DNA sequence: TCCCGGTGGAAAATCGATTCATTTTCCCTC
DNA sequence: GAGGGAAAATGAATCGATTTTCCACCGGGA
């Protein structure tokens, strides 16, 4: 005996068949219409659209994904969502994605490689079309999982030798040179650097660019004045404390990111040092907060919007143009100094 | 003539058939094993699991969703991802969700009703199993779209008369009473309130609780001292400026959220007022930053972790226990004062 | 010897779309 | 009016799982 035909429950959502029936066309035509195929006449297209409106029909993306192989979902993995840099980045990435009909899957690794592996797995299970890995380092192990399955990825500050991988490089050098130049012009000679964790490629690049800028300004690097911190507020406080232990102290501190700089501001305050009169501080990122610290932070701007757009474009290129062997796979994002009030002439120059 | 059978491309991902073949069982058994059916013996189950491992098989969630009707995706809609309160909330929500095998879809409305509608639509298209609407107001129009299609939702601070909707209420009253009490104990009598935008239910609740606390402390409310701001840094600055225009000024300011309070800190600094000596400031939320402002902010803590967990539990209850007519549909999250250094005795009391 | 309950298998229906191969429609020309 | 060819619309296979139905097998009890 044939299986009993299932009656449709009353509250059933309209599917493509319902639309086809309502518009008196085949389901193939409905599908074509929705996908903007040129093979549908104006007249029919209109009729189908009306039926869609009338029924308040939403296509089932899962069914769509199953057959087409594309999910129209992009993943974005960030290092730490509690660092304001990243929400701003996610926001821009989301806007770019949604504008082109992509959905995004966000996750944050907190610099834990295990979490990163889990993220990659989650992305794979949901069949993302591409992943922006915005962790600025530590990403090696995860790459294979994704690229081996043919998922395009884009990395920040890290080149991978895989045709499916693109890279976004930051031109820190320009911004950092401007910062050093700014300090030198104010009269500073003793400049310290609070670096980020060495596990991050970006932290190392920033530090190297700082060294280069110091050298090209003809300034000597005091050995104790480059300290590895962890890019957090607490880390900035700790870094300052460490700097403060030594007898000779810098008159200016450049930090690997804004959070560190804000930590320094806090620590300096606790030690009774006035910024910028007793100490100049420069950050890097220019998060929204930087304008509202006390005093407002002089910092090197790294645009989240630019970075997000570059990441999205890199993925889109891989997706739309994957045949092309001469695909652009490297992108550059620039930086520049924003002068506010945390920098001034050093005390000695008064 | 039948369509030509398609050969499998070499690099094909393993599917359930491949696993079945590798484990020498039927696909039904593989499915049963993965879904923890009791009809599979220990022995076989182990064999299947091994095959899954060996092939590095990942089930296709889209295929699964299509037939089962459940996507195991939860949506979370926040007001503004650039306010650090929300990333911290998302982080906790994500952890809870991922721990139970759910994926999450994040989006941020920026208080724009049109964006909210788009978000709802995106969630619907992706067939989310439930949505946490953490916008603290403005949500009416969107509700129908979701609940009408049977998607459970949980709202912050807003009750809806729908069996699919749950609510999380914040007990601001306790924290705000503590704050007023703290100020009164320090000697303050003149206390202003920088409210949030009246479009937000939470902002109105907070304001009302402030009024109530003032009254129960026997303090008079100065008419010009309740000002509507917008919960941003800039808004805090503007609010302070407005307060400052009048001849009589408060000795303490309570703010509807931390961002506003941080804006006030900044504005006070620009006007040469020292906090807390000249002016006491209290925030609400206790975002991570609050500990690192200058001076560290006294604030009313509203735990993101508690809120996220409540939101997740509310949805899970709706999902797992949807038959139950006596479902818990209201949850309460508490608040409490955290005293740091932005409050002290008023100048006159010195 | 027959039957029975408990396991697991094989096969088919289903979910809701896309898309290929095919048929139908329509228009133009001779 | 027939024939040809492009354009428009259709039918059916397909994606990868879940789930149901029916069946086979095995050991044990009556």
List its salient traits:
homodimer; 350 residues; alpha/beta; 43% helix; disordered N terminus; DNA-binding
Task: Tell me what you see in this structure.
The structure is a homodimer of 350-residue chains. With 350 residues, chain A is α/β, with parallel strands linked by helices. The first copy, chain A, has helices spanning 16-23, 27-34, 42-55, 61-68, 85-99, 113-125, 140-148, 172-186, 201-216, 233-245, 258-270, 304-320; strands at 73-78, 103-108, 130-134, 153-156, 165-171, 191-195, 226-228, 252-255, 280-285, 298-302, 330-338. Chain A is elongated and about 85 Å long. At the A-B interface, helix 4, helix 5, strand 2, helix 6 and helix 11 of A face helix 4, helix 5, strand 2, helix 6 and helix 11 of B. The structure holds a DNA duplex (30 and 30 nucleotides).
Question: Major sheet of chain A: size, sense and barrel closure?
Answer: 11 strands, mixed
The most extensive contact between chains is: A-B, 50 and 50 residues
| Elements of chain A, N to C (H/E) | HHHHEHEHEHEEHEHEHEHEEHE
The general outline of chain A is: elongated
User: Could you give the order of strands across the largest sheet of chain A?
Assistant: 2-1-3-4-5-11-10-9-8-6-7
Helix residue percentage of chain A: 40-55%
List the total number of helices of chain A. 12
Mean pLDDT of chain A: 91
- Please tell me how large the radius of gyration of chain A is: 26 Å
Topology of this protein?
The structure is a homodimer of 350-residue chains.
Chain A: H1 16-23, H2 27-34, H3 42-55, H4 61-68, E1 73-78, H5 85-99, E2 103-108, H6 113-125, E3 130-134, H7 140-148, E4 153-156, E5 165-171, H8 172-186, E6 191-195, H9 201-216, E7 226-228, H10 233-245, E8 252-255, H11 258-270, E9 280-285, E10 298-302, H12 304-320, E11 330-338
Parallel strand pairs in A: 1-2, 1-3, 3-4, 4-5, 5-11, 6-7, 6-8, 8-9, 9-10
Antiparallel strand pairs in A: 10-11
The structure holds a DNA duplex (30 and 30 nucleotides).
């Amino acid at each position: 005996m044939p299986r009993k035909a299932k009656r449709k429950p009353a509250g059933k959502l309209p599917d493509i068949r319902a639309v086809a029936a309502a518009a008196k066309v085949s389901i193939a035509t409905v599908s074509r219409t929705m996908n903007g195929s040129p093979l549908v006449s104006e007249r029919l297209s209109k009729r189908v659209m009306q039926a869609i409106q009338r029924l308040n029909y939403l296509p089932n993306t899962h069914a769509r994904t199953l057959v087409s192989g594309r999910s129209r979902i992009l993943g974005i993995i960030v290092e730490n969502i509690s660092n304001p840099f990243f929400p701003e980045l996610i926001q821009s990435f989301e806007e770019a994605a949604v504008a082109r009909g992509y959905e995004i899957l966000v996750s944050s690794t907190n610099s834990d490689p295990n979490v990163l592996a889990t993220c990659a797995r989650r992305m794979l299970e949901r069949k993302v079309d591409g992943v922006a890995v915005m962790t600025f380092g530590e990403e090696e192990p995860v790459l294979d999982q994704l690229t081996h399955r043919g998922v395009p990825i884009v990395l920040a500050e890290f080149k991978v030798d895989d045709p499916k991988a693109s890279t976004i490089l930051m031109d820190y050098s320009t911004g950092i040179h401007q910062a050093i130049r700014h300090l030198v012009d104010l009269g500073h000679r003793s400049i310290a650097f609070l670096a980020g964790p060495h596990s991050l490629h970006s932290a190392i690049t920033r530090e190297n660019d700082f060294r280069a800028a110091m050298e090209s300004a003809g300034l000597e690097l005091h050995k104790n004045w480059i300290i590895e911190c962890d890019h957090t507020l607490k880390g900035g406080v700790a870094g300052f404390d460490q700097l403060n232990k030594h007898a000779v102290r810098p008159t200016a501190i450049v930090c690997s990111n804004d959070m560190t700089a804000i930590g320094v501001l806090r620590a300096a305050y606790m030690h009774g040092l006035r910024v910028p009169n007793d100490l100049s501080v420069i950050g890097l990122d220019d998060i929204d907060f930087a304008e509202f610290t006390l005093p407002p932070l002089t910092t090197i701007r790294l645009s989240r919007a630019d970075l997000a757009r570059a990441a999205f474009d890199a993925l889109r290129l891989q997706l739309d143009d994957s045949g092309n062997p001469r695909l652009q796979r490297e992108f550059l994002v620039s930086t520049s100094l924003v002068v506010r009030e945390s920098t001034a002439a050093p005390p000695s120059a008064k």
